[in-house]
Design brief:
S-adenosyl-L-methionine, Trp Operon Repressor, Chain A, cytoplasm, Alpha/beta knot, five-stranded parallel sheet, 31% helix, alpha/beta, two-stranded antiparallel ribbon, 2 domains, tRNA (guanine-N(1)-)-methyltransferase, 9 strands
């Protein structure tokens, strides 16, 4: 996968050289290119922002530098088109489903903004001829979109074939489609069996795969009920067995027939 990122702080992306993403870059699974937006601002101060039309606080990033920068990236492969991702708190929510969708793309272009965002004509211009997604990573506002790009690249990169040592790791994630869809992952344990007076649940030491699977599902239901109860409403009622329904009833949560 090719990834391009345009930013006024390309140095922000040093973490992409470490851990799983860094190894994926070394192995050629991820081909990441960083671009300085100010290289496309031609006044003496390399200005990339101006006051907003209509008044109001803050500054808006100018369309000219962004247009020139995006055009320069597109010129790298005129026969192809990237999917452009614009981080913004006013965008659609970034989810595991969207991460999986992005992981199937051959080319992504991220355009993290600062200040009050990018002049909306930039999205209109490129959205008329290619896919442009405005995406937010949560219901809060950051100083800039760079950290959101790091979050998305981490989520997307680990889904690419060959990045994770165990392919089951991505399948068993919270929010991953499958048998545990819409449930948070339950607690996990490793050696030693006792630590500072805390013992690993006995069922996990039993070797009984069926009982272990049942325990993990019960704990996933309990954690979801405690931390994200709204997700339980998204469960397919037909995916709930009698044990699930009894547990949810004990937790004081209704289940649909």
């Amino acid at each position: 996968m090719r990834v391009d990122v345009i930013s006024i702080f390309p140095e922000y992306f040093a973490p992409l050289d470490v851990s799983l993403i860094g190894k994926a870059r070394e192995r050629g699974i991820l081909d990441i290119h960083l671009h300085q937006l100010r290289d496309h601002a031609h006044d003496v101060h390399r200005t990339v922002d101006d006051t907003p039309y209509g008044g109001g606080p803050g500054m808006v990033m100018k369309p000219d530098p962004w247009g020139e920068a995006i055009d320069a990236v597109l010129a790298a492969d005129p026969a192809a088109q990237p999917r452009i991702v614009v981080p913004t708190p006013s965008g659609v929510p970034f989810t595991q489903k969207l991460a999986m969708e992005y992981a199937s793309e051959p080319w992504l272009l991220f355009t993290p903004a600062r200040y009050e965002g990018i002049d909306s004509r930039v999205m209109a211009e490129y959205g008329s001829r290619m896919r442009v997604d405005e995406v937010g990573i949560g219901d809060y506002v950051l100083a800039g979109g760079e950290v959101a790009v790091l979050v998305m690249l981490e989520a997307v990169g680990r889904l690419l074939p060959g990045v994770l040592g165990n392919v089951r790791s991505a399948v068993d994630d919270s929010f991953a489609p499958g048998a545990m869809e819409n449930l948070l992952e339950g607690p996990v344990y490793t050696k030693p069996p006792e630590w500072r007076g805390h013992e690993v649940p006995e069922i996990l030491l039993s070797g009984h795969h069926g009982k272990v699977a049942r325990w993990r599902r019960d704990e996933a239901l309990r954690r979801t009920a405690a931390n994200r109860p709204e997700l339980l409403a998204l469960l397919d009622p037909e995916s709930l067995d009698k044990h699930d329904r009894r547990l949810l009833s004990e937790l004081g949560l209704p289940t649909r027939p």
